[in-house]
Amino acid sequence: MRRPASDESPFSEAPEGESEHEFIGYERRFVARFDNKAAGTYVKFGRHLVQRLDRLAFGERLAAYQVLCKEIDTMMASGSTLSERVMLDLEEAASWLLLPSPNLFDLFNEADDFA
After folding, report:
1. Is the residue at 84 inside a domain?
2. Contact (CB, 8 A) for 40 and 71
3. What is the pLDDT of residue 56?
4. Residue 86 — φ and ψ, nearest 5°?
5. Residue 14 burial (C-beta neighbours within 10 Å; 0-12, 13-18, 19+)
6. Domain limits at 60?
7. Element spanning 14, H or E
8. Domain-embedded: residue 104
9. What secondary structure does DSSP assign to 47-95, as a single string?
10. Is 9 contained in some domain?
């Protein structure tokens, strides 16, 4: 996740046109870790088996990740409890994008910045 500006949520969507930039970053992370495997190839990332995504599949996974992040942001803002299931879903969604597992402590600290 990119660091939010002071007036935006830590889980806000990427600005329009930034998904191309995000895809390039994903491609770099994939090649650095798994070499240049074909799209559709499965690899183990953390606890998850994930596929190398093409541009279209990446966009879909990024959108799903952003929706989940918005939902978590809303839950945190309302004081709801984050269940283990929600956190596991977030971890898996991050894994598909080859992002490190979210740190719950950091999430709460970032949320406090916006209170």
Report:
1. yes
2. no
3. 94
4. -65, -45
5. middle
6. 39-113
7. none
8. yes
9. TEEEEPP-HHHHHHHHHHHHHHHHHHHHHHHHTPPPPHHHHHHHHHHHH
10. no
Q: Is residue 18 domain-resident?
A: no
Q: What is the model's pLDDT at position 17? A: 57
Total residues belonging to the chain: 115
Burial-class residue 51 by CB neighbours within 10 Å (0-12, 13-18, 19+). middle
| Angstrom distance (rounded) from CA 77 to CA 36 | 41
Mean pLDDT within 33-45 = 96
98: Cβ contacts below 8 Å, ≥ 6 apart: 26, 29, 30, 33, 45, 50
Structural domain tally of the chain? Answer: 1
The pLDDT score that the predictor gives to residue 103 is 75
Mean pLDDT value of segment 59-75: 92
